[in-house]
Specification:
A: alpha/beta; four-stranded antiparallel β-sheet; 9 helices; B: mainly alpha; 2 domains; two-stranded parallel ribbon; globular
């Protein structure tokens, strides 16, 4: 890779909702070719940060660059370079899986023949071919994640931004998604994904950033962040979790 | 060790309607938090409600205030009957029902059906329209009191309260049942046909009614009022008058009729409520669709869109076309449009015909004129386009896909208008042809078609802009009539504003019909087509620019708050 630009660069991203700070100035450099895990507890601002990074939510301050292209001032070029799987966002779910892929492909300006061929391949690999013309709204949660991933991959982006790709996914599908992402990174792509599942992050990622209360608390390669401890210990320490003393909720064991 | 599940230490307290009411007030209050414009909308709604209430009050109190007992029964029966009819039909056509408390949210709570229905009913009673109707119908109490003293006023008050419950129960039952009907894919076509037949029947019924009204003397009208008074439509509103006029024996019977009506409606509602709750949880049944035919791209494009290019524009049009049929909310809009679009102009233009023939005038000399006909179809064109006033709200957060793909705003709006037109243009054509046939004026075809196209086109232009600037989120329930609290009003205001704007922009067509005479019959179609098409193109061109700058804000606006 000869890119001197990072795959994704965030500078001073900030956002408040109704006076409440959701993200308070996030700086992040995602090197091209890395497998980047964005860790954080619920409500840390992961989804808000990623939404601002891909142009779905306008930041109050700061900016985002994809391979050197500003997402907010040069959206057309930037948006061609990445694929997104947002979390908590509906797909156009009254289409069947194949229809949805065709829609995404054509929307990205792809050649219809290429769309047909890639859609068939993706449906086959993700084991969604059996669903036939079932509408995506009737898919299970895991199937929805898989078709969302297929939509993000279809146009062959250089950067994949995935929000909670392993949430509500059964182990078989999760393994499949891991394999595909791994192959994608080996092939020169870059993946940024958010999660709060330590095992997955530890297994996959080359780089990790821990986000809490709207700011980056720790950042670096997996080994830098983890040191000689487990990632979970570091995470709980950084985030400042509490442990039960056994006094509370006594009525549960009555 | 597993946690032993013991009986709760204290008996759980029973849930009553009070809790639902408080929950609704709390949800309404939280919706206002930090949302200045929502408060403004609400205040606007309260003012409109008060205006309606005052007008209604004086109309209904008029017989009492004027001391004219012979009109009292008529006013009560017809006024009240219209109220019930309005509560039945208006939610279906225009406003939707306020689902601040979405029944599906209660699916997991250990509540009996009776508790749930009474609770939701009580919560539904707490709203601006119900308070407005209550104030208006107090006019009936006043009338009864002035004509028959305290006893009559008291009975009238009981009747009014029961009538109000009847109204709310009717609106809930009907929308809920209709929603269930539309949700089931098997009967959706049946529902469409049923509505169409109903509308087709309404027209002639209206004629009969009007003709009767024209001929009838007051005595016969009073007879009709007496009959209406014995149906659930009129029973609750007329009890006070009955007591005042010395028919005290009728009061308990009529209250019984009302109670039976309410009971039947609540039973009906609770039936469809259950299916709404289950349906929302499971997302409907899986369909036995045939296997895939052809590649993914071929599958996306409906057969009717075979002409469309397989590019971004084509994909947007194809997806929108699929959605107008597959999304229950959009389909409900389309069906309503088709029904009203045919029904209203026929009513307006045909109304005079039967009178003129009956009163011995020349054969088939409809009282309609080119101006009246133009006006009536102008309404249809405007109504069609206003369906798009919140077109992005239909998508909800799914619109994110288009934002991420960076779809240019002009392309987006043009594609949406095109897809909607695939459904609307045939409807408009049918409207024009039906009107021409009914009126027996083949020469007016160009006039009607031209006016329809012009008003639809300028409507598209205005609503493209409104849909970008005034978008609001719709709740993600399976009820196509559900509105967020507060949004009902927002929708109403937005709809009215864009309708007025569109109508104003289409007025030149009516002026031309008035001034140009016969020449206009020939000019209307080409000029109307050019005007409409030009306006639509200009509107999407301008609004597309705005959309390019506001795409992410628009996405935030249409994403339901969770």
């Amino acid at each position: 890779m000869t890119d001197q630009h990072p795959a994704l660069a965030l500078r001073g991203l900030a956002k408040r909702f109704d006076g409440k700070v959701a993200v308070a100035g996030v700086d992040l450099d995602v090197p091209a070719g890395s497998f980047y895990g964005l860790l954080g507890p619920n409500g840390a601002g992961k989804t808000t940060t990623l939404s601002m990074a891909v142009g779905l939510l306008r930041p109050d301050a700061g900016g985002a660059w994809v391979l050197g292209h500003d997402v907010w001032t040069d959206p057309v070029r930037a948006k061609q370079l990445f694929g997104v799987m947002p979390d908590g966002v509906r797909l156009f779910d009254r289409l069947s899986g194949a229809e949805l892929l065709a829609y995404h492909g054509l929307l990205r300006g792809m050649d219809p023949a290429v769309v047909d061929q890639r859609a068939a391949e993706l449906l086959d690999v993700l084991a969604l071919g059996d669903a036939g013309r079932t509408l995506v709204v009737d898919y299970s949660a895991g199937m929805k994640k898989k078709i969302g991933l297929a939509c993000a991959l279809l146009h062959g982006p250089r950067l994949l931004v995935l929000d909670e790709p392993f949430e509500a996914v059964d182990p078989v599908s999760a393994a499949l998604i891991r394999d595909i992402l791994h192959r994608y990174v080996v092939g020169g792509g870059t993946v940024v994904f958010s999660s709060h599942v330590m095992e997955v992050v530890e297994r996959l990622c080359s780089h990790v950033a821990i986000l809490a209360e709207g700011t980056i608390k720790q950042v670096g390669t997996l080994d830098q962040v983890r040191g000689d401890r487990s990632l979970e210990d570091v995470f709980v320490e950084v985030v400042g979790g509490r442990t039960a003393t056994g006094e509370e909720l006594a009525w549960l064991s009555r | 060790m597993a946690v032993p599940v013991t009986a709760p230490a204290e008996r759980s307290r029973p849930v009553s309607a009070r809790h639902f009411v408080r929950l609704k007030l709390r949800v309404m209050g939280n919706n206002f938090r930090g949302q200045g414009w929502r408060i403004a909308m609400f205040v606007g709604g309260v003012i409109a409600g008060l205006w309606f209430a005052a007008t209604g009050f004086f109309l209904l109190a008029a017989p009492g205030l004027a001391g004219e007992p012979k009109y009292a029964l008529m006013v009560a029966a017809f006024g009240g009957g219209l109220l019930v009819l309005g509560w039945l039909l208006l939610p279906l056509v225009f406003f939707g029902v306020d689902e601040t408390l979405d029944p599906a949210r209660f699916a997991l709570l250990p509540l009996t059906r009776r508790t749930l229905v009474t609770g939701l009913l009580a919560a539904a009673l707490v709203s601006v329209p119900t308070v407005a109707v209550l104030i208006a119908t107090l006019g009936l109490v006043l009338t009864a009191g002035m004509l028959g003293g305290w006893a009559a006023a008291l009975v009238a008050a009981v009747g009014v309260a029961a009538g109000l419950v009847l109204c709310v129960a009717a609106s809930r039952a009907v929308t809920s049942a209709f929603a269930t009907m539309l949700r089931s894919r098997r009967v959706r076509d049946l529902a469409a046909v049923l509505l169409a037949v109903l509308a087709a029947l309404l027209g002639p019924l209206q004629l009969v009614g009007l003709a009767a009204l024209r001929q009838a003397d007051w005595d016969r009208l009073a007879g009709v009022a007496r009959v209406v008074g014995w149906t659930p439509f009129g029973a609750p509103w007329t009890v006070g008058i009955d007591v005042a006029e010395g028919r005290a024996w009728a009061a308990p019977l009529k209250l019984l009729i009302t109670a039976a009506g309410i009971g039947a409606l609540l039973w009906w509602w609770s039936r469809s409520l259950e299916s709404a709750m289950v349906g929302a949880a499971s997302g409907g049944t899986a369909k036995a669709r045939g296997g895939p035919v052809g590649g993914a791209v071929t599958q996306l494009f409906p057969r009717a869109l075979g002409w469309a290019r397989r590019d971004r524009f084509g994909a947007l049009v194809a997806r929108e076309c699929r959605y107008w049929w597959r999304d229950a909310r959009r389909r409900a809009n389309l069906i309503t449009l088709a029904v009203i679009g045919i029904f209203v102009p026929v009513m307006v233009n045909f109304g005079g015909t039967s009178f003129s023939t009956e009163s011995g005038m020349e054969f088939a000399a409809p009282s309609s004129s080119p101006v009246l006909a133009s006006l009536s179809v102008l309404f249809v064109g405007v109504l069609a386009s206003v369906t798009l006033a919140n077109q992005f709200g239909f998508d909800g957060s799914a619109y994110a896909a288009n934002v991420v793909a960076g779809v240019p705003g002009r392309l987006e709006l043009r594609a949406r208008a095109t897809a909607f037109s695939v459904y609307v243009l045939p409807i408009l054509a049918v409207v024009a042809v039906v009107l021409v046939v009914v009126l027996g004026r083949p020469a007016w075809l160009g006039l009607l078609a031209g006016t329809l196209l012009a008003s639809y086109g300028v409507g598209l232009a205005i609503n493209s802009l409104v849909s970008v600037l005034g978008a609001y989120s719709l709740p993600e329930t399976s009820n196509p009539f559900a509105m967020n609290s507060g949004a009902g009003l927002a929708k109403g205001l937005l709809t009215v504003l864009s309708m007025i704007g569109s109508a104003a922009a289409a007025v030149p067509m009516v002026v031309a019909a008035a001034l140009l005479g016969d020449a206009w019959l020939w000019l209307a179609l080409p000029l109307g087509l050019a005007y409409g098409l030009g306006a639509a193109l200009l509107g999407t061109y301008l609004a597309g620019d705005v959309l390019d700058r506001r795409a992410s804000e628009l996405l935030t606006a249409v994403t339901p708050r969770r």
